Input
Amino acid sequence: MNIVRPKIVVLGAGYAGLMTTKQLTKVLSPEEAEIILVNKHNYHYETTWLHEVAAGTINHNQARVMLSDVVSQNRVRLIYDEVEKVDKEEKKVVLSNAELSYDYLVVALGFESNTFGIKGMEENAFAIKDIDSCRLIREHMEYQFAKYNNNPDAEDHSLTILVGGGGFTGIELVGELAERVPELCKKYDIDRSKAKIINVEATPSILPGFDEELITYAKQSLEARGVEFRLGAMIKECTEDSFIVGEEAEEIKAGTIVWTGGVTGNSVLGASGFELNRGKVSVTDDLRLPEDENIFVLGDCAWVWNKEADRPYPPTAQIALQQGVATAKNIKALMYNQPLNNFEFHDKGTVASLGSTDGMGSVFNGKKLFGKPAAVMKKVVDNRSLFLLGGVGLILRKGKLNPFDTL
Ligand code: FAD
Ligand code: NAD
Output
């Protein structure tokens, strides 16, 4: 006899989607539901490591994990396809190559770069989006260095790397570049003083809103390693080889330009007609789409309100992983007409890398970390994420092994 099981479809195998899927296999038996995970690629990638892939300080293969290695295909049907839109009236998902019906849906398709309509940015700047876009940044940057001594007309600015936006992504990226650029100079016989790394930030400070002491540490540490900052410098335009900044329309030229000035929710949300607030869904307390009780929206696609601070939580891997755990339990509750639990975020702090041996952040109720201890903590956090998604085996294969080497 064929038993018709409810169909749970999870869109996106990032932190939120993969965690939801793995937890669903724990809270539900095979007889209770069919679980389907849809992802653009046949691999998950560690989004939080993408700045390292872009700078070339780690190999891209370290940051990606084949889904078939971490998801049991006895329990989960894997579909590698691109989601185009959700048709919530028909309860189906339109993929590039097929359509899929669902009873319960989890939308966890992550972020897209947001250029805020800045002239030329979309066309001329690279952005940290996924593994392939970061490989392109790495290759382009290396090509600029390889070309320099082979072209008598090469101008010094072709070696400059401009990073637009001094939020966490921009700062972590320049931290890696401070390590990578000296290596590239050595490899291609280029004087280190010729290759500039410039971070351009619109507000008067990098990491606006973050702890002052930690900001000062990060800025001084990066400057000591050759990073230049242009603060209070609003980027107005991006040309093929420059940013135009500030009221005076100053031109800063470069051979590699990366935009890290902001992110928004995946464009599938808009294509699906979901009600959006600045590109994301303002979800209910139990992380559902307000207009459809069978659709959960997680991770960088969702605004989750922090009632204490009266603003949304910043989108992070940490919150996305916790949402995955909560959502698997809530889907089970929904299936059995039980009450759902509101999502509660347990903040474990924020740590940022400033290259592989430096960092800063605050953990455990505000305790501040600087320098090597922070770098060790960041690697422990990176390994923890691998552990949560793929156990000890995944740490052994892909982990930042022996983080204490940093000390
Ligand atoms: P993601 O992890 O981005 O996953 C989305 C998935 O959906 C991907 O697998 C993607 O391929 C897939 N997908 C996208 N579109 C489609 C489609 N149309 N069809 C099919 N599949 C699709 N947060 C922290 O907590 N700590 C950090 O140290 C940290 N560092 C960061 C460093 C960088 C460089 C960046 C960019 C972000 C960092 N963040 C960090 C933020 C964190 O990475 C995100 O908040 C987190 O990845 C969100 O998880 P998610 O599951 O929503 O999306
Ligand atoms: P963001 O929005 O946090 O920062 C973007 C920065 O670009 C801001 O400082 C903004 O002032 C600046 N900017 C915007 N427009 C500009 C312009 N025209 N000219 C110059 N500067 C401009 O984006 P992000 O850094 O990509 O971070 C996205 C999310 O990912 C955040 O929630 C962050 O917490 C998270 N993240 C966390 C970590 C970590 O925990 N280590 C690392 C990376 C990202």
